[in-house]
């Protein structure tokens, strides 16, 4: 049976689909898995051994649909579920099943602050789309595959960090999901451990401002490494501190301890770091949440915003850095003091 799985973006959302990809491939005899994705995110799935073929979302719609039609898919698994995926499904005219995005429940939570979200991780909701094929969650968590040629060599990072470091992911897709620079400076100043800052090239200037608190302890790697190389630095780290963003989910896929920092979004949306039941059978909970509780305005969005609608940005400005450091020290096996 030939399946087309659709998830256009973004990094974290695509990583969250990997249990569906793996379970479908391994549990349906003879399954052939194709994946439709935006070109800028193809790296996330390019080395996944459970994907037989990647297809890229194209501006040339007619040619893309013609190419997809030639594949003669038996079924479409729509894990994005928007107007564009609806167009794909209508054009291909094959049976399909779509992920329930729970937009009404999210709207009620954001607008009325009444949490009617199910107490299920989004991955468990993704898995509902393949239930009819006899596919079940295998408990192995998420996947992220780093090719050998994109592994970071020891000499690619400072000698001061080669015996161990904490990875701090300073970027995020929206302003309201990121700690302000001065809070990140405070975090790095108080962290008694070598630090590597991770982010895109757009975060390099912010990384330089943060690095100034201690240029020896803090290494700014923002924009210096590819996505896979950054993922490898995550894999090599002792602990990952990250906003609600793609590298947070990659860290969980690589089974790294994580401190997840939440601003305008919330863990209640069901997208906390996910390790799988098999890992949790032999390990204590491997992540902590860091957030400002009892703010009437949280969550103000289901995805993130480019500005605080209230103007005060308390969800990040009031973040208790000392408490975050305490959690980090516990994760690092140090005193909680």
TrEMBL record:
SUPFAM superfamilies: UDP-Glycosyltransferase/glycogen phosphorylase
GO terms, biological process: lipopolysaccharide core region biosynthetic process
InterPro entries reported for this sequence: Glyco_trans_9, LPS_LOS_Heptosyltrfase
Superkingdom assignment: Bacteria
CC per GO annotation: cytosol
Name by which UniProt lists this protein: Heptosyltransferase-2
Record keywords: Glycosyltransferase, Transferase
Transmembrane segments: none
């Amino acid at each position: 049976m030939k399946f087309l799985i659709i998830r256009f973006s973004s990094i974290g959302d695509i990583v969250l689909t990997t249990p569906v990809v793996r379970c479908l491939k391994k549990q349906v005899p003879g399954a052939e898995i194709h994946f439709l994705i935006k070109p800028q995110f193809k790296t996330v799935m390019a080395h996944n051994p459970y994907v037989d073929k990647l297809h890229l979302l194209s501006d040339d719609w007619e040619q893309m649909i013609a190419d997809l039609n030639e594949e003669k898919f038996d079924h479409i698994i729509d894990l994005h579920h928007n107007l564009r995926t609806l167009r794909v499904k209508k054009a291909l005219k094959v049976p399909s099943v779509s992920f329930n995005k729970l937009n009404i429940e999210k709207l009620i939570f954001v607008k009325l602050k009444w949490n009617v979200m199910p107490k299920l991780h989004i991955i468990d909701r993704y898995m509902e789309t393949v239930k009819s094929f006899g596919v079940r969650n295998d408990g192995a968590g998420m996947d992220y595959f780093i090719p050998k040629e994109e592994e970071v060599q020891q000499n690619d990072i400072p000698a001061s960090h080669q015996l161990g470091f904490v990875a701090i992911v300073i970027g995020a897709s929206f302003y309201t999901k990121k700690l302000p620079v001065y809070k990140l400076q405070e975090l790095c100043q108080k962290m008694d451990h070598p630090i590597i800052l991770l982010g895109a090239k757009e975060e390099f200037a912010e990384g330089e401002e943060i690095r100034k608190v201690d240029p020896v302890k803090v290494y700014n790697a923002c924009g210096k490494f590819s996505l896979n190389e950054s993922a490898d630095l995550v894999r090599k780290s002792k602990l990952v501190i990250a906003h609600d963003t793609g590298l947070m989910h990659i860290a969980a896929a690589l089974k790294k301890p994580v401190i997840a920092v939440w601003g305008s979004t919330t863990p209640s949306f069901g997208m906390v770091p996910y390790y799988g039941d098999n890992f949790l059978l032999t390990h204590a909970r491997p992540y902590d949440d860091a957030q400002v509780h009892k703010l009437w305005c949280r969550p103000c969005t289901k995805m993130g915003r480019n500005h605080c609608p209230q103007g005060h940005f308390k969800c990040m400005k009031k973040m208790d850095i000392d408490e975050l450091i305490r959690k980090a020290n516990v994760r690092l096996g140090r005193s909680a003091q």
